[in-house]
Amino acid sequence: MVLIFLSVLSVVALYTVRDAVTGEQVSKNIHTNAVAMQSAETAMRLCEDAVRTGQAMLGSASVVKNDASEGLAGGDMPTQWKTRANWYAGAAKVTLIPADYITTASMRPLPRPRCMIEQYRLRRPDGDATLSDPYLITAVGYSPDYLANANGNAVAGSEVWLQSVLRP
Predict the structure, then answer these.
(1) Which conformational region is residue 14 in: left (phi greater than 0), alpha (psi within -120 to 50 degrees), or beta?
(2) Which of 108, 130, 139 is nearest to 40 (CA)?
(3) pTM (2 d.p.)
(4) What is the DSSP string of the chain?
């Protein structure tokens, strides 16, 4: 009888430990995603402000504005943000957010957050006149434990993408 009771107690303890470990993993994933989201939001806001104020620099980094309006038909959205190679740190089309803009030193993600600003033409349906030249701003943020393979695909950590359209 004692042996059966001890076996049941061991199984209950095993499931309790497993649930605690699973809960801790879920909590870590939520935290990792939240840090990546905050990183992407920082990049998004800084690039939006650069467009609004006409800034050419963010600290020591130049703000890159890609004019995509030439190759697009009226009303088509820019597509440079879809090419993974355009997002690497040395790419000419991306603005890398300086490390000093992320205030918490222990949470500074590597790679640093980045954004891409693409201007395009928005035309009226009848095609007569241009309404405005809005900007499509795409931002990417990473968690501190982010790792990518040689193809640029995430193998650990979190990667968050955000987009906004801004009419100056």
Answers:
(1) alpha
(2) 139
(3) 0.76
(4) -HHHHHHHHHHHHHHHHHHHHHHHHHHHHHHHHHHHHHHHHHHHHHHHHHHHHT-SEETTEEPPEEE-STTS-TTPPP-GGG-GGGGSTT-TT-EEPPGGGS--GGG--SSPPEEEEEE--EE-TTSSSEEE--EEEEEEEE-TT-EE-TTS-EEES-EEEEEEEE--
How do the pLDDT tens digits run along the chain, 168 residues long? 888 988 999 999 888 888 888 888 888 889 888 988 988 998 999 999 988 888 888 776 778 887 765 555 555 778 888 888 888 767 788 888 877 776 655 555 578 898 998 888 766 666 555 566 788 899 999 888 888 887 777 888 889 999 999 887
